Amino acid sequence: MLDTFKIAFKLKTTYKVNAIIFSLKRIPLIKKIVPDDWYNDVNIKTLGNVFNIFREIGTLFIGKIIYLFFMFMITSLFFENEEANYILHIFIFSTFIGTIYKNYLFESSNDNYYGVILMRMNAKEYGISNYIYYILRTFIGFMPLTIIGAILLNIPLYIGLLLPLFVVLSKITMMGINIVYANKTNKYEPLFNGVPSIVATVILCILAIVLPLFNIKISNNLFLIILFILTLTSIYSIKKIFEFKDYLKIYKTTLKNVNDFDKFNNEAVLRENTQKQIEYKVKYDSNKNGYAYFHDLFVKRHRKVLTKAVNIQSLILLGILVLAILLVVFVPESHDEINRVPLKYLPYFVFIMYYLNRGTVLTQSLFINCDHSMLTYRFFRRPSVILGLFKERLKTLIKLNLEPALIIAVGLPIILYLTGGTSNNLNYIVLFVSIISMSIFFSIHYLVMYYLLQPYNANTELKSGTYKIVQALTYLVCYYMIQIQVPTLIYGVCTIIFSVVYSIISLILVYKLAPKTFKIRN
Questions:
Q1: Contact 307, 295 (CB under 8 A)
Q2: pLDDT tens digits for range 239-285
Q3: What angle do CA 231, 234, 238 make, to 5 degrees?
């Protein structure tokens, strides 16, 4: 098993080094100085391996630092000056949520495909050895952070020492549950998947945030009891993990839900899943004309992939809003804490609107099921056609993003009013308009990115390094906005002005440049 892991680790390292070189060759200016023989250059490969080792060490802690930071922010958001009393409670439930979505063995990746499918490595040895490595990384990555956190927050040191153990035992238990589920049902996918995962997440979020508002929290002693139970379930889970024989079937299912692996890549899976969402059997019609007619038919045939997630987002947000209103009505002592949310934490909603945005899904669907074929026709690349469709697509994306945004935009002023209001009535208007502005901003931003940096090639593979860089910068800027602390009125007005100015400039750039940039990449 150790030899299998060594080979798998070398394979993963080589793949990532080659991926770095490939990405460099896709960035303008830099690609001209990156020769093809770098793939075979021993010195470059050695440098790449060193860089990858530092990257492996960095990722050991960075993700966990971000995770703990967000958890602390959520705790301080609801329980100001009482973080130490509730941080353990929030940590336990957030860890349970993490086990639902982070199922290491059930995740598809090129590394797994190359190792298990192409190189025909022993699937069981490959899966177990890499899972052990993942568990060890998780434990080592959390240990110094939870110890430091315990010291800073005056939490008992033994709690800080046991928290990493709690995390890994939770993950092992969930993996055991998934293995048992796969054994009994012959369904080689996580138990909590799709709607069940969303329902479980909502329930856990409610337990994590609402219970402490009623002064109900998990105490240190209860934590020890939970840890003991997880120890027992983990021992059973480890036994099941090592007894399980169908690891190859899991990899075949997660890598691609068909039997043809010769053309496997993430883009192929994405393309297949997107095409499954198209409604071919229903005959749609439209009363619109020209580009609007063409686009309207596209939206109606793809309404599942475009609106399903939006509707789920809206239902969750509506549930949170109703829950907050009930809390305000029946627990008057919560008014002071909840009143601070819209007035103090408006910058957080930039990050929330970033995650709610459906721009990536729409542009992927547009290219996979429309543009990658239509762009081969000369008439489709005429400026009038490009700009005409751009307007229709922008209307659709704004409409999609506005559905959940309206719930937030209406909900924040309502919550603010019910919890005592504000001394400046302009705050109500600014809260509403700023949320709507953020939604429209992200709609324009992602569609403009698509038109100016069109990142896909004829095989619907994402090949633009510049596009990836802009995506990363967008994330970093949204994350940075969380740290800004200014009055709601000032921040909201600045957000509105920026969104309007950015939108105008972006639309001008699309008008002038899109006819040249909107094309299939080589």
A1: no
A2: 998 988 888 887 777 775 433 444 444 455 555 555 555 655 556 66
A3: 140
